[in-house]
Design goal:
Order of helices and strands: HHHHHHHH
Number of strands: 0
Number of helices: 8
Structural class: mainly alpha
Largest sheet: none
Shape: elongated
Length: 190
């Protein structure tokens, strides 16, 4: 019976390797997003060059500028979503499979990785999602044509809620930095 239990535990532990599929597809999706958004960025730059055409009528110029600004905001969303996919893939790899040894020798890994638990991964991903939502709201607010004072009130309320959410996420971040760790407590008592 002991060999059956040991075999089951080995199979159960090795089943975590299925996460490799999520890691690979997440990173590939991130690469694809960066490529697609890069190509779209070139199109926006072409619009900017077209905007400089001195023969263009003022109404056309304003419409092109408005369209270009909205497309640039969408590009920011695309890049953020690509970064989200990378963070997700790296985080899954580090949580379920192994530390990225190559990343540990890089100075940039301290800003990207340091994912020790699912809560760390959720926190990092939630911050990226919050930024994406802020950009989306900015894009929508840019497109709004306020007809009534109530429309302006809605936009102001949305901006206030974003400010509050940024404040709350920043507050939880500073609490983590000031909380004494168990190791710090043990050193103080020595």
């Amino acid at each position: 019976m002991n060999w059956w239990k040991k075999g089951f535990e080995i199979a159960l532990w090795n089943s975590r390797l299925v996460v490799v599929l999520a890691v690979i597809t997440s990173v590939l999706a991130g690469v694809a997003l960066f490529c697609i958004i890069g190509i779209e960025s070139l199109r926006v730059l072409a619009n900017v060059v077209h905007y400089l055409d001195p023969t263009m009528v003022l109404e056309q110029r304003e419409a092109l500028l408005r369209e270009s600004v909205l497309r640039i905001i969408s590009l920011i969303d695309g890049y953020l979503l690509g970064a989200f996919m990378f963070i997700f893939g790296f985080g899954l790899y580090e949580l379920f499979l192994s530390d990225l040894q190559e990343a540990r020798s890089s100075q940039a890994s301290g800003r990207i990785l340091r994912i020790k638990s699912l809560d760390d991964l959720k926190t990092r991903l939630a911050k990226v999602v919050l930024i994406i939502l802020i950009v989306e709201l900015f894009k929508d607010a840019f497109a709004i044509k306020a007809q009534t004072p109530l429309d302006l009130l809605y936009v102001a309320a949305a901006i206030a809620l974003i400010g509050l959410s940024l404040y709350l996420t920043r507050g939880s971040e500073s609490e983590k930095k000031t909380e004494p760790t168990l190791q710090d407590s043990n050193q103080e008592s020595s």
